[in-house]
């Protein structure tokens, strides 16, 4: 049974201001919820149409009907459960290994996909400019497919962060050096730009190595790559010479 | 001015059965519409809130208000124009170079992104199983960002196609060979599987070279990569030794 107040609270968490106020966020579906439960995220309540849930004390389980789940879900087709989790304290970025930095990436699907990519490629730190889409946006949480539990995502003044790092800073530009022919280090910051505008001028000035993913298509009109697929290609290039598991 | 019949026809084109019946599809936004106009796609009608449109005879332009555009648009936030285009005749696949084959990819965003990737990497042919999402689904057309005009997409019985090809057939599997250490040919078919189930058993049996994108993350739980980002990484690997432009 879900009360009107609970519905109001949970649907409110679809908005950043209420997430910030309550320090809570939602995650949906067994896969994502289970990954968060297996990690250090602290569960507040679990709304589920199922009876048993591995590793959750019954006191935190609130049985709901499909109709009730639909009322609190952010999904068009709700899955069988919705977890309300506490937002953890933000950790610091460790200046070690490869770090991905996002300069105002706005699309939740893109951020979620990039977090999933970081997880795959063993990137532990993702630094986002303050204007980037919020990590706890329900669409971001869903798109990470649980990888949100394993990547440290920090929001900060990106220009300031990039200015003060001791690591080399890579960014993709039309006139950059062919990434396939570069010797790429095992430490560095890879900056990815906004969907419409790319890397901002202020950040571009701090990039120490301009790189480019060459275009192989014959026609010049080909749009730029989507930011998530470009991240996939760059991480693959930076990591391909490391020892895979 | 848009009549009720026009609204009915155009919104009907959001469904595959009406697209098939009328042999028409819609594309929205200046960027996508302009790319289709610059290519071989034949425009039926262009609904636009603007007055002038490069390369379109005025007879085909139907001025509309923002409110009218909203009624016919498939987008939540309609752009300034919607073009109704004729579906071209399907071309044959030329057995040449690299070909991407999709084994029941269902998500429109993924198909659109993969078409955009094919365009970037100069892949001319994309073969889709008959259960794959329809190319002319409005969400696919939008996600291609115009690349739909430059990639030949063919729907066919994929098992039959793969059985009869003379080209090597690559597919990604957990137990495949590390793609980063393989010598990859300049000709071949790269099969990408369904979002939830990967490559089907029937197709898996026809794959001549099983490959894998190594996982670098420390934690084993990391989900598989999204099909579009996996395609990005594979196309990058197959193409990185070719001469980029």
From TrEMBL, chains A, B:
CDD domains, alphabetized: SpoU-like_RNA-MTase (cd18109)
Protein's GO biological process: methylation; RNA processing
Which InterPro entries does this one have?
A: Alpha/beta_knot_MTases, MRM3-like_sub_bind, Ribosomal_eL30-like_sf, rRNA_Methyltransferase, SpoU_MeTrfase, SpoU_subst-bd, tRNA_m1G_MTases_N
| Pfam families hit by this protein | MRM3-like_sub_bind, SpoU_methylase
Location of the RNA 2-O ribose methyltransferase substrate binding domain:
26-91
Q: Which GO terms describe its cellular component?
A: cytoplasm
Give this protein's Gene Ontology molecular function annotations.
RNA binding; RNA methyltransferase activity
The record's keywords, sorted A to Z, are: Methyltransferase, Transferase
- Listed SMART domains: SpoU_sub_bind
What's this protein's family per the entry?
Belongs to the class IV-like SAM-binding methyltransferase superfamily. RNA methyltransferase TrmH family.
Q: What name does the UniProt record give this protein?
A: RNA methyltransferase
Q: What is the scientific name of the source organism?
A: Flavobacterium arcticum
Q: What is the lineage of its organism?
A: Bacteria, Pseudomonadati, Bacteroidota, Flavobacteriia, Flavobacteriales
């Amino acid at each position: 049974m879900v009360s009107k107040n609970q519905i109001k609270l949970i649907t409110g968490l679809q908005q950043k201001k209420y997430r910030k106020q309550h320090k809570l966020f939602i995650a949906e579906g067994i896969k994502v919820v289970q990954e968060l439960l297996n990690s250090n995220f602290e569960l507040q309540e679990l709304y589920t149409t199922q009876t048993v849930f591995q590793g959750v004390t019954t006191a935190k389980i609130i049985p709901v009907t499909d109709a009730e789940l639909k009322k609190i879900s952010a999904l068009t087709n709700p899955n069988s459960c919705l977890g309300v989790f506490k937002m953890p304290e933000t950790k610091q970025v460790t200046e070690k290994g490869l770090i991905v930095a996002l300069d105002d990436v706005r699309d939740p699907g893109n951020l979620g996909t990039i977090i999933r990519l970081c997880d795959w490629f063993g990137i532990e730190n993702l630094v986002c400019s303050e204007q980037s889409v919020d990590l706890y946006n329900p669409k971001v949480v869903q798109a990470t497919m649980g990888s949100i539990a394993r990547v440290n995502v920090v929001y900060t003044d990106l220009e300031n962060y990039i200015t003060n790092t001791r690591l080399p800073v890579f960014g993709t530009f039309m006139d950059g050096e062919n990434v396939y022919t570069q010797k790429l280090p095992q430490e560095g910051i890879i900056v990815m730009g906004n969907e419409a505008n790319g890397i901002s001028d202020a950040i571009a000035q701090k990039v120490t190595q301009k790189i480019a993913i060459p275009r192989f298509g014959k026609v010049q009109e080909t749009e730029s790559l989507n930011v998530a697929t470009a991240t996939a290609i760059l991480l693959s290039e930076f990591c391909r010479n490391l020892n895979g598991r």
